[in-house]
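Give me the fold.
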Amino acid sequence: MRDYSHFRAWKKSEWLQLLEATGFVIQEWHRFEKQFTFEPWCNRMNLSITKKDELTTYMINTSEEIRKKFAIIIENNKVISFKGEAVVLKAVK
């Protein structure tokens, strides 16, 4: 919703499968959480106020399970921050 150039984020398993299927050997990988502060995260994509409000509403109204998974912090009907997940891989052919 924030970046229209992204259709979806690949799962870790999809990255590993693709790399291995194309002849790469995974030598190491590290998973880590990334904390995002909502306002600067939106501002990096120059979201309009309307789009930012839509994204805020979506995140506030998501299920409790999703709010917990992404550690979404909401104060006074504003999204303060949330967590994502990233992986750094080292693969050789």
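The two ends are 35 Å apart (CA to CA).
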